[in-house]
C-alpha cells in the first residue's frame, strides 16, 4: 500500500496582515492532509509575522532582494514534506482533501502539479483564470528568474507536470481585484524586471537577457505602455535568436502584441520564423488564426481552429501547448461577427464547463427565452464542479439570471421539458429563438482581443 504523502504549504509574504488570516484559514480546511504551513517573510512592517506565528505557522524572517525565485526557494527550504503547495497570501485554496491526497499518492513520476487559479473582482466574481504551478516536490525542483519565476529540476529527472481538476483543487485569487491593486503590482513587477535586466545585461547571458526583456514587456503591457512593451518583446525575441527552441514563448507574446497593434505583416513574419524554431503546430495554427481574425477572415479562423477543440468531456482543457479555452474564445468572436448566435451560445456553454464562469453574464445578456429554459441548459453546470461559481454569477447578473439560479438550486421545481445539458441541447434552445444579438453581447463577442 502506498504511503500517504506529506504535504506542506509554502508562502512568501510581506505586509499581508489583511490577507493572511483568510489564506491560513483556507489552508487549515485541508485538515490532517496538510502537515505544516511554512511562511517566509521578506520584511513586513505590519503584524504579518505575529499573525502567522499565532496561527501555528513555521515562520522565517527573511529579506527582500527583488528576486521572487530566491524567496520561493527559501520557503521550499523550510519544508520537510513530499509535496509543497505554492501559495500567496491573497489566494484561497479550495480543495477536496481526500481526492487531493489520492491524486498526490498516485503521482510517482510527476514533480510538479498545476492547478486552476481564478481571479476574482471586488464582488468576488470570477473575471479571469489561468493555470499555475501550485505544488512541487521541494527536494526535486527550484525556481528560477527574479520575476514570473518558473521551475527547473535539480535532480536530473526533468520537469514532469500533472494537472489537477478544479474539483480536486483550485485557487481563488484576490490580488488583482481592483484597478489600483493591479497597477501597483504591475509597477512593482516592472521595477523587479528592470533590476533583473540590469544584472542580465552585465552578465551578457542571452537567456537571462531575453527573460528579463520578456517579463518587463508583460508588466508594461499591464500598465498600458504598449509601445514600450512591444519594444521589450522585440528585444527578447532578438536576444533568444530565431533558431532557439526557447524563443517560442517570446515569439508568441510578440506576435500577439504586433497583432493587437494592427502590425499584422510583421506578426506573420515572426510567425514564419517561430515555425522554424520548432514550435508545435497547434500553437502556430492558433496564432495564425488570431492574425486572420484581426484581418477579418472569420471563416478561415473557424476552419483553422475546428480540430483544435477536443470533446467537451475531455480530461484536460489543453491540447499540447494550446489552451482550448483560448481557441474557443477566438471562435466565439468569429462566430459572433458572422451572426451565428446558436453556435456562439453552444461555445460559451463549453467555456463555462471548462471554468470560464465569467461567461455566464454574457449568456444571460444574449438570452431572450424563458427563465425555465435558461435554467435547463445550465442545469449540469450549476451542479458540476463550478456549480457555486455558476450560481453566484447568475445571481450577480440581471434579467432572468437570478431566477434561473433559483430553479437550479431547487430541482423539485417542475419542468415541462427535459433539460438541455449539452452543446447539442444548447443549439436546440438557440434554434428555438431563445438567444439574441443585442449590442452588449455583440460588443463582448466581437470586440475583445484573443489575448
TrEMBL record:
<protein>
    <submittedName>
        <fullName>Putative glycosyltransferase</fullName>
    </submittedName>
</protein>
<keyword id="KW-0808">Transferase</keyword>
<dbReference type="GO" id="GO:0016740">
    <property type="term" value="F:transferase activity"/>
</dbReference>
<dbReference type="InterPro" id="IPR029044">
    <property type="entry name" value="Nucleotide-diphossugar_trans"/>
</dbReference>
<dbReference type="InterPro" id="IPR001173">
    <property type="entry name" value="Glyco_trans_2-like"/>
</dbReference>
<dbReference type="Pfam" id="PF00535">
    <property type="entry name" value="Glycos_transf_2"/>
</dbReference>
<feature type="domain" description="Glycosyltransferase 2-like">
    <location>
        <begin position="11"/>
        <end position="136"/>
    </location>
</feature>
<feature type="region of interest" description="Disordered">
    <location>
        <begin position="413"/>
        <end position="451"/>
    </location>
</feature>
Amino acid at each position: 500500500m502506498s504511503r500517504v504523502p506529506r504535504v506542506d504549504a509554502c508562502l512568501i509574504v510581506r505586509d499581508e496582515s489583511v490577507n493572511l488570516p483568510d489564506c491560513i484559514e483556507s489552508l487549515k480546511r485541508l485538515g490532517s492532509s496538510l502537515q505544516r504551513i511554512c511562511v517566509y517573510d521578506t520584511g513586513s512592517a505590519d503584524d504579518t509575522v505575529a499573525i502567522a506565528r499565532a496561527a501555528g505557522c513555521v515562520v522565517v524572517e527573511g529579506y527582500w532582494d527583488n528576486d521572487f525565485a530566491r524567496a520561493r526557494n527559501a520557503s521550499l527550504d523550510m519544508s520537510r514534506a513530499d509535496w509543497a503547495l505554492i501559495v500567496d497570501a491573497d489566494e484561497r485554496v479550495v480543495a477536496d482533501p481526500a481526492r487531493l491526497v489520492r491524486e498526490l499518492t498516485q503521482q510517482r513520476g510527476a514533480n510538479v502539479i498545476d492547478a486552476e487559479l481564478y481571479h476574482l473582482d471586488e464582488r468576488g466574481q470570477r473575471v479571469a483564470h489561468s493555470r499555475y504551478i501550485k505544488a512541487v516536490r521541494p527536494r526535486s525542483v527550484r525556481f528560477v528568474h527574479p520575476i514570473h519565476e518558473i521551475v527547473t529540476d535539480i535532480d536530473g529527472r526533468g520537469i514532469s507536470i500533472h494537472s489537477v481538476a478544479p474539483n480536486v483543487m483550485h485557487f481563488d485569487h484576490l490580488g488583482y481585484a481592483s484597478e489600483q491593486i493591479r497597477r501597483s503590482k504591475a509597477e512593482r513587477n516592472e521595477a523587479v524586471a528592470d533590476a533583473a535586466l540590469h544584472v542580465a545585461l552585465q552578465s551578457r547571458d542571452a537567456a537571462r537577457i531575453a527573460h528579463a526583456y520578456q517579463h518587463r514587456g508583460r508588466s508594461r503591457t499591464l500598465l498600458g505602455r504598449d509601445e514600450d512593451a512591444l519594444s521589450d518583446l522585440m528585444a527578447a525575441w532578438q536576444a533568444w535568436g530565431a533558431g532557439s527552441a526557447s524563443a517560442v514563448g517570446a515569439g508568441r507574446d510578440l506576435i500577439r502584441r504586433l497583432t493587437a497593434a494592427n502590425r499584422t505583416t510583421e506578426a506573420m513574419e515572426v510567425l514564419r520564423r517561430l515555425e522554424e524554431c520548432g514550435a508545435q503546430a497547434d500553437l502556430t495554427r492558433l496564432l495564425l488564426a488570431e492574425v486572420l481574425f484581426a484581418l477579418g477572415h472569420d471563416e478561415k479562423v473557424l476552419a483553422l481552429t475546428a480540430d483544435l477543440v477536443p470533446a467537451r468531456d475531455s480530461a484536460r482543457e489543453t491540447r499540447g501547448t494550446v489552451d482550448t479555452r483560448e481557441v474557443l474564445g477566438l471562435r466565439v468572436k468569429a462566430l459572433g461577427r458572422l451572426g451565428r448566435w446558436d453556435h456562439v451560445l453552444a461555445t460559451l456553454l463549453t467555456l463555462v464547463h471548462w471554468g470560464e464562469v465569467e461567461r455566464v453574464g454574457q449568456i444571460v445578456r444574449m438570452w431572450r427565452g424563458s427563465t425555465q429554459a435558461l435554467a435547463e441548459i445550465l442545469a449540469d453546470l450549476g451542479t458540476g464542479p463550478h456549480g457555486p461559481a455558476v450560481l453566484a454569477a447568475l445571481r450577480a447578473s440581471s434579467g432572468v439570471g437570478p431566477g434561473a439560479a433559483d430553479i437550479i438550486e431547487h430541482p423539485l421545481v417542475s419542468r415541462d421539458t427535459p433539460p438541455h445539458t449539452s452543446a447539442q441541447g444548447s443549439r436546440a434552445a438557440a434554434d428555438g429563438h431563445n438567444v439574441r444579438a443585442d449590442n452588449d453581447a455583440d460588443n463582448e463577442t466581437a470586440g475583445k482581443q484573443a489575448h
